[in-house]
Amino acid sequence: MKFTDFLTRRCLALIPLLALLCAGAARSALAANELIVIAHKDVVLDKISPERVTQIYLRQQQSWPDGQPIQPIDLREGSSLRRAFYDQVTGRSLGQVRAYWARQSFTGMGLPPRQVDSDEEVTRLVQNTPGAIGYVSRKPSGAGVKVLLSTSVD
Question: Does the model's pTM come out above 0.85?
Answer without folding.
Answer: no
